[in-house]
Write a structure and sequence with these properties.
The complex is a heterodimer of chains A (about 325) and B (about 290). Chain A is of the alpha+beta class and about 325 residues long. Chain A has a 6-stranded mixed beta sheet with strand order 6-7-8-3-9-10, with helices on both faces. In chain A, a hairpin with a 6-residue loop joins strand 15 and strand 16. Chain A is globular and about 75 Å long. The model of chain A has no long low-confidence stretch (mean pLDDT about 90). In chain B, strands 1-2 form a two-stranded antiparallel sheet. Chain B starts with a helix and ends with a helix. Classes of the chains: A alpha+beta (about 325), B mainly alpha (about 290). At the A-B interface, strand 6 and helix 2 of A face helix 9 and helix 10 of B. The structure holds adenosine-5'-diphosphate and magnesium ion (MG). The site of magnesium ion has 3 residues of chain A, from helix 1.
């Protein structure tokens, strides 16, 4: 079990309100990702759920039981910290055993769970090392091992991959996703990286300044962003947001079109522009196109072998049915 | 210091400092060893020539020798125990956010700036005086017979005075160590189900072990040679004669430089034994 319900949860530090009253439902077995720019209150929200911060208002229910006043240890949640927070003077084995030792589990059971976790996380050869003698990815796995042996009803991750290099990050992302499929336990995952959110989540919660902008599946957010913020935040490269005369043609304040929803041509199209910087990724090419009358350059995706260069004239045609329209308040029309 | 040449140049430029430092340490040491083999009674005939190991055997066979070693160890051990236990507690308390933190920290450190002679006199006359001391008044207030601190409880009294002086040092070093502990580790332990005392035992204390080692080593060096506190309180009476104090008495009160020097050499040996001993038990904390 691992259903977490937030009802009107609110948090202030002194007089600054970091999280205005907020409702959220996390279902059993779900992989929920909190995503948003740095400082938007993701960690604070996660720490409220963990019990490491006290709420300033509202209630937190775990599996239908009011857990608002419960200490962290009583919530049967396990957390993986950004810094891993391993105990440096203990061996990997002792680190993983620590929560079981605190819970007073029999030695034999501890050993069994340690060897299972170590096998699952490729740590068997490192059990007698200290955390200081491990690489970043291995430390990360120890932190995860320490969390899974407790068999919690939900896992909380706070930017667990942000200290790893790009290649390891992709690998760990897969491992965590696989872990979720195998354990089928609720996971709440915090990140500022929308790629992590899109690739891992069952449900994404987009936060800005402590406010939930939208909740939905990755493709929901991609296809029907509720407002301009979500539209710009989800998807890589970002959606092009165009204001002014071009938007007025659609009777709205802002229109948005994703780089992958624009057709590129050397001869004809709706918009005529000049190629600026181009990024060649092999599979794709991203052109930054300067168009007269547009405030900002438009990013478009083209195939890997489009023969256009800096300064060339380029014609762009947005797919009409994939244009997103937003009103003056930034909301989707 | 990459090349051979720059390395030898560096050596030459360091030489004056190294030589000065060596002379600084070696001259007194050699003089001590030199005098320890001579019969030297400044007021009774002066330097009377070599006597072999006579000074050594006389010093060690004196009835005051072993009690003085014992007293030294009790004082050093007692002060170490008190300063480290209370130092850890104070450091944890001072780490808590509180009103007037800066002022409180300065107040806690203050005793370290009081000269040993002064602090011993203050304790002797204002706290421990059996008639006018604050403790005497306190005891009388509760209807108890005032304790004759420096004569009846002489050793604990001195341990108390010296601990008071060294507590700030221990607290300060331990406080910086407490502050360097990653708070996420404590939070992780909290989520892992460790209540406060277990967090202290399994997380905080191991983190402090290196700082405790440093406090232990530095304090031992200084505590082996405490003198002023004994001189101004009991004058070595009532079983408070440490090895240092015994040497002082031999040299200045008995005017026997040779005997005192032999005692000095014993003190060096004792200090080294303790140092090796300490390094063995706690020194491994410094490697990791
Ligand atoms: N202990 C605290 N005291 C005061 N302000 C805090 C505290 N913790 C976080 N904040 C503030 O709350 C906001 C959200 O922080 P955080 O949840 O860490 O953001 P995120 O994890 O999304 O980057 C930030 O503006 C931060 O300055
Ligand atoms: Mg954060």
């Amino acid at each position: 079990m691992g259903r977490i319900t937030l009802k009107k949860v609110q948090k202030s530090f002194g007089s600054t309100e970091v999280i205005p009253p907020l409702d959220l439902e996390i279902n059993d077995g779900e992989f929920v990702v909190f995503v948003g720019p740095s400082g938007c209150g993701k960690s604070t929200l996660l720490r409220l759920i963990a019990g490491l911060e006290d709420t300033s208002g509202g209630t937190i229910e775990i599996d239908g039981v009011d857990a608002t006043g419960l200490p962290p240890a009583k919530r049967s949640l396990a957390m993986v910290f950004q810094s891993y927070a391993l105990y440096p003077h203990m061996s990997v084995r002792k680190n993983i055993a620590f929560p079981m030792k605190m819970a007073g589990l029999p030695k034999a059971e501890q050993e069994k769970r340690i060897s299972q976790a170590a096998a699952a996380l490729n740590l068997t050869d490192y059990l007698d090392r200290r955390p200081g003698q491990l690489s970043g990815g291995q430390r990360q796995r120890v932190a995860i091992g320490r969390a899974i042996v407790r068999e919690p009803s939900a896992f909380l991750f706070d930017e667990p991959l942000s200290n790893l290099d790009a290649a390891l990050r992709v690998g760990m992302r897969l491992e965590i996703s696989e872990l979720h499929k195998r354990l089928d336990t609720t996971m709440v995952y915090v990140t500022h990286d929308q790629v992590e959110a899109m690739t891992m989540a069952d449900k994404i919660v987009v936060l800005q300044a402590g406010v939930i902008e939208q909740v939905g599946s990755p493709l929901d957010l991609y296809h029907t962003p509720r407002n301009k913020f979500v539209a710009g935040f989800i998807g890589s490269p970002r959606m092009n947001l165009i204001e002014g005369a071009e938007a007025a043609k659609h009777n709205v304040t802002t229109i948005g079109i994703r780089p992958e929803h624009i057709a590129v041509s050397g001869e004809s199209g709706d918009w005529k522009g000049v190629v600026g910087v181009s990024e060649h990724l092999g599979s794709d090419t991203f052109f930054h196109v300067k168009i007269d009358g547009f405030a900002e350059p438009i990013t478009v995706r083209a195939g890997g072998n489009v023969d256009l260069h800096y300064g060339d004239t380029i014609y762009l045609t947005p797919q009409a049915d994939l244009i997103h329209k937003f009103d003056g308040g930034g909301l989707r029309v | 210091m990459a090349t051979q040449q720059s390395r030898s140049a560096a050596r030459m430029m360091m030489a004056p400092a190294v030589i000065l430092l060596l002379a600084w340490m070696l001259v007194p040491l050699i003089m001590t060893v030199w005098f320890s083999f001579r019969k030297y009674l400044p007021l009774r005939g002066g330097d009377l020539g070599f006597v072999g190991f006579e000074n050594y055997s006389r010093f060690i066979s004196s009835s005051s020798f072993w009690p003085s070693v014992q007293t030294t160890l009790i004082i050093v051990g007692g002060v170490l125990l008190i300063t480290i236990v209370f130092g850890v507690i104070l450091a944890l308390l001072l780490d808590q956010p509180m009103w007037g933190q800066g002022v409180v920290r300065i107040l806690v450190i203050a005793p370290f700036f009081v000269m040993p002679t002064v602090s011993a006199l203050v304790w002797k006359n204002m706290f421990m005086d059996p008639v006018n001391g604050i403790f005497a008044h306190l005891w009388k207030f509760f209807g108890a017979e005032p304790v004759q601190w420096l004569s009846q409880e002489s050793l604990p009294s001195i341990v108390m005075i010296v601990s008071w002086q060294w507590l700030p040092f221990a607290t300060l070093i331990l406080l910086t160590a407490v502050q360097s502990l990653d708070s996420e580790q404590l939070e992780a332990a909290e989520m892992d189900g460790a209540p406060y005392l277990k967090r202290f035992w399994f997380i905080v204390l191991p983190h402090l072990s290196r700082a405790i080692t440093i406090v232990l080593l530095i304090q031992t060096i200084f505590l082996l040679s405490i003198f002023a506190e004994i001189f101004v309180t009991t004058g070595g009476a009532f079983g408070t004669k440490t090895l240092t104090y015994l040497i002082f008495q031999r040299v200045l009160e008995s005017q026997n430089v040779g005997l005192g020097s032999a005692g000095g050499v014993y003190a060096i040996i004792l200090a080294n034994i303790i140092a090796i001993f300490l390094m063995r038990i706690v020194g491994k904390n410094l490697d990791t």
